[in-house]
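Thread amino acids onto this structure.
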C-alpha cells in the first residue's frame, strides 16, 4: 500500500522532514487511527519513521483490532505499529511511555449525530476528557486535538473564508448541533488542561477533505459523486448546487496535522483545509469530467432559491503565515488521484 501511494508519501516527507527532529526513539499514541485521518497519519508515520531512521513507535487505540486488520492486512508488515483495544471513553491506561498524542477519534457522522446525539456527545466530550487525563499522566511533549470548522456555527454568507477569531457558534436549541457543541467543549477542555496542568495542547479545526480511503457511501458529497462516477451513474444533486465548500487533499492534510503537532502554538486553534471555494455543482462537474466509459450528467433537482449562498470555507492565513504551510495539491489533481485509487482498490 505504501508503495502505491509513494508520490503522496514523498510529498509528505519533503514538507515535514524538518519538524520530526525530537521524535527519535519516541512513541505516538493515536486515537481514531482506523479512520480516514488515522490511516493517512499511520502511513505517513511509517514512511517518515523509516526514511529518517527514527526508531519510533505508534500505538493505535481501536475498539476492534481484528476488524481493522481484516481490511488492512498490510499494516502487519510494520512492527512499529501496535494496537490497544478499547473504547476512547474508558480505555485502560497503559504503563508504556507515550511522548505524543493525536486525538482524532470522533467520526463526523451525520447519521449518528441525528439518530443518537447523546452518543455523539459522550464520544466527543468524555473521550476527550479521558485522553487528556492520559496525556497528563504521561506528561506528553505535545497533544493534538482534531476539532472541526463546525465550531463556528453557520458561516455568514458575506464572509468568504472564516478565520479562527470569528466568534460565531452553533444553534444550541437544535439537537443537530451536538457534534459542533461537543467539539467546542472538547476545545475548552484542552484549554483547561493547558491552564491547569501546562499540557501542550494544539488544535486543528478541520474542514472537508478528499483522497484515497475517503468513504464513498457516507455523507461526504465528494465521495458520493465519485461513487456515482465509478458506478457509471449520473450525479444527482438534491439541492440547487449553490452551497460552497473547499476540499483539501489527504496528503496535504497530514502535512498540516504533523506540522501543527510539532510546531503549532500551544492552546491555539488552526483552521485546516483549502481556502479555494467551489460550489457543490462545480464539484460534481469536475468529477463528471473524469468519466472514461460514458458521459456522466449532473442533474440538479432544485431550482435556484435566490437565498444567500451557504458557505463552509476556512481562512487559513494563520497556518500559512505562522507555520509556513501551503496548499500543495489542487482540487482537480485531488479528484483525479482519489478516483484513480478507487478504480484500483
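Threaded sequence (345 positions):
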Amino acid at each position: 500500500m505504501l508503495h502505491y501511494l509513494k508520490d503522496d508519501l514523498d510529498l509528505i516527507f519533503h514538507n515535514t522532514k524538518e519538524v520530526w527532529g525530537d521524535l527519535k526513539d519516541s512513541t505516538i499514541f493515536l486515537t481514531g487511527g482506523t479512520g480516514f485521518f488515522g490511516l493517512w497519519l499511520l502511513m505517513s508515520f511509517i514512511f517518515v519513521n523509516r526514511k529518517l531512521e527514527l526508531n519510533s513507535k505508534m500505538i493505535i487505540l481501536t475498539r476492534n483490532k481484528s476488524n481493522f486488520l481484516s481490511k488492512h492486512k498490510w499494516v502487519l508488515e510494520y512492527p512499529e505499529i501496535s494496537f490497544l483495544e478499547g473504547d476512547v471513553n474508558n480505555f485502560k491506561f497503559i504503563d508504556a511511555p507515550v511522548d505524543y498524542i493525536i486525538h482524532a477519534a470522533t467520526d463526523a457522522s451525520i447519521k449518528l449525530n441525528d439518530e443518537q446525539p447523546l452518543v455523539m456527545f459522550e464520544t466527543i466530550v468524555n473521550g476527550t476528557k479521558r485522553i487528556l487525563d492520559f496525556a497528563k499522566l504521561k506528561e506528553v511533549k505535545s497533544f493534538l486535538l482534531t476539532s472541526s470548522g463546525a465550531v463556528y456555527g453557520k458561516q455568514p454568507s458575506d464572509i468568504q473564508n472564516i478565520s479562527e477569531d470569528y466568534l460565531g457558534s452553533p444553534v444550541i436549541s437544535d439537537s443537530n448541533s451536538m457534534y459542533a457543541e461537543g467539539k467546542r467543549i472538547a476545545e475548552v477542555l484542552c484549554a483547561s488542561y493547558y491552564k491547569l496542568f501546562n499540557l501542550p495542547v494544539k488544535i486543528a479545526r478541520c474542514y472537508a477533505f478528499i483522497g484515497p480511503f475517503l468513504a464513498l457511501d457516507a455523507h461526504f458529497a465528494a465521495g458520493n459523486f465519485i461513487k456515482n462516477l465509478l458506478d457509471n451513474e449520473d450525479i444527482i444533486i438534491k439541492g440547487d448546487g449553490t452551497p460552497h465548500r473547499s476540499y483539501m487533499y489527504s496528503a496535504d492534510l497530514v502535512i498540516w496535522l504533523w506540522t501543527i503537532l510539532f510546531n503549532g502554538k500551544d492552546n491555539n486553534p488552526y483552521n485546516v483545509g483549502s481556502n479555494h471555494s467551489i460550489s457543490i455543482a462545480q464539484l460534481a462537474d469536475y468529477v463528471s469530467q473524469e468519466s472514461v466509459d460514458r458521459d456522466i450528467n449532473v442533474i440538479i433537482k432544485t431550482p435556484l432559491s435566490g437565498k444567500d449562498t451557504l458557505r463552509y470555507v476556512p481562512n487559513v492565513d494563520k497556518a500559512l503565515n505562522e507555520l509556513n504551510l501551503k496548499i500543495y495539491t489542487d482540487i482537480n489533481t485531488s479528484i483525479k488521484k482519489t478516483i484513480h485509487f478507487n478504480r484500483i482498490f
